[in-house]
Write a structure and sequence with these properties.
Radius of gyration: 16 Å
Number of strands: 0
Structural class: mainly alpha
Oligomer: single chain
Distance between the termini: 29 Å
Shape: globular
Number of domains: 1
Length: 93
């Protein structure tokens, strides 16, 4: 899809969530992406304040790869997390 298409789609989803008042549901549905971004934020803040890293590498999927997980296992784990977040999002509606 590329940057242009994905950014447009993300912006449209965010605008729709704001218009319908379902920002929390969008936050839950995008839980995997939120965790990926939070891992980077935590890593940067921790390194700047303490000089220590929380994760072996960020974003989070690289931490799992450096922990010995295969790419296939990481992808399956993130699919499972995405499914769990989708179910939580539907329950929140």
């Amino acid at each position: 899809m590329g940057d242009t298409g994905s950014l447009a789609l993300g912006g449209a989803l965010a605008a729709l969530a704001v218009i319908t008042g379902t920002e929390l549901v969008l936050f839950l549905l995008g839980g995997v992406f939120v965790l990926e971004v939070l891992s980077v934020i935590i890593q940067v803040i921790s390194f700047q304040l303490t000089g220590k890293r929380v994760f072996k590498m960020s974003p989070l999927h690289h931490h799992f790869e450096l922990s010995g997980w295969s790419e296939v296992r990481v992808v399956h784990f993130f699919w499972l997390m995405g499914l769990c977040f989708a179910i939580l999002g539907l329950l929140a509606l």
